[in-house]
Amino acid sequence: MKAILFEKPGSEDVLFWGDAPAPELLPGMIRIQVAATALNRADLLQRQGFYPPPAGASEILGLECSGVVSEIAEGVSGFRIGDRVMALLPGGGYAEEVVVDAGSVMRVPDHIDLVEAAALPEVLLTVFLNVFEIGGLREGGWLLVHGGGSGIGTASIQMARSIGAHVVVTAGSEAKCRRCVELGADVALNYREGDFAESVIESTGGVGVEVVLDSIGAPYLESNLKSLATDGRLVMIGLMGGAKSEIALGALLARRLSVVGSTLRTRSSVEKAALVAGLQTRFWTALEEGRLQPIVDRVLPIDQAGAGHRTMKASDHFGKIVLKVG
Ligand SMILES: NC(=O)c1ccc[n+]([C@@H]2O[C@H](COP(=O)([O-])OP(=O)(O)OC[C@H]3O[C@@H](n4cnc5c(N)ncnc54)[C@H](OP(=O)(O)O)[C@@H]3O)[C@@H](O)[C@H]2O)c1
What we know:
single chain; seven-stranded mixed sheet; six-stranded parallel sheet; 9 helices; binds NADP nicotinamide-adenine-dinucleotide phosphate
C-alpha cells in the first residue's frame, strides 16, 4: 500500500507518499480502505520526533480515518464488508489501509460525506471524554474552551450546545471569534486583547464556569483557575504554551477545584471501546439530526500532507484539515 512516510524527524518537507507494507489483520480487528484522514496537533509533534506512537501502534502518522470496511477478523460482529465507517486510531491513518480494533470503529451516518467524516472521531471522542466524562458538564452549565476555532474547539462548542450547556471560547482573531459565535458559542474572547478570566466571570453572572478544557498549559493555569466556579474542574489536554508553572494552591482548597490531565491515544482498546459506546449513547442522535457536524476547513490530497501541517502550525484553519486518500 501507499502511505505518508518520513525517514528522519524534521520539517514538513520530510513527508513523502511512498510504499509501506499493508498492516496485518489481528484478532478483534477490522481492515478499512481509507477514504480520508484528518490532521491533529499531535501529528506535527510526531513528525518532529517529539511524540512517539504507543507500543504496538503503527509508526505511520494519523489518529483517525474514514473509509469502507474491507476485511473483518473472525468472530468480530456488528460490521459487514462495504460498511461506511470512521475510526479512532493509535496511528496509521495517513495510508491507503488501516487495521483497527473493532471497538474503535463507528458507522458514518448516511447524510455525512465519507471524506468529511474523517474529521469526527478524534474530536468527538476527546471532547466526550474530557468535557463530559471527566469534566461532568451538564445541561445549563458553562464550559470555557481555549482555541475555539480548533478541531477540538469547534467540536466542544457543538457538543456543549447540543446538551443545552453554555460555552465561552478564546480565539486569536476577530474573524475566528465571529465564527465561533455563529457555530453556537455564547461568548468568544480574543485572547490577544488581554486576559480572559475577568470576562469569563462577568459572562457567567459572577459565578465562573463548571469546566475548563485547556490545551495551552502553563501560561493559562492561573487564569483558568480564576475562571472556575466553586467545585469546578480544569481538564488539561495539551501544553501548547508551556509545561511549567507556579501557582498559589490556596484556591484549589478554598473553592474545591480539581485539576486533571488526560490523553486519549495512550488508553487501552478496552477503554476506547467503552468511550465509543458512551459517545454513541449520548451524542449519536445529535449527530444523526445534524446538530453535530464535521467542521472542515479544507480537504487536501494526501500527498499534500506537508502543506496541511504548515497550515496547522500557522493556525490558519478553522475546524479540521482533512487529507483525502486516492
Ligand atoms: N490529550 C488528548 O487526548 C488530546 C486529544 C486531541 C487534541 N489534544 C490537544 O488539543 C489541542 C487542540 O488540538 P487540535 O487538533 O484541535 O489543534 P488545532 O486545530 O491546531 O488547534 C489549536 C488552536 O489553538 C489556538 N491557540 C493557539 N494559541 C492559543 C492561545 N494562547 N489561546 C487560545 N487559543 C490558542 C489556535 O488558533 P488561534 O491562535 O488562531 O485562535 C488553534 O485554533 C492541541 O493541544 C492538541 O494536542 C489533546
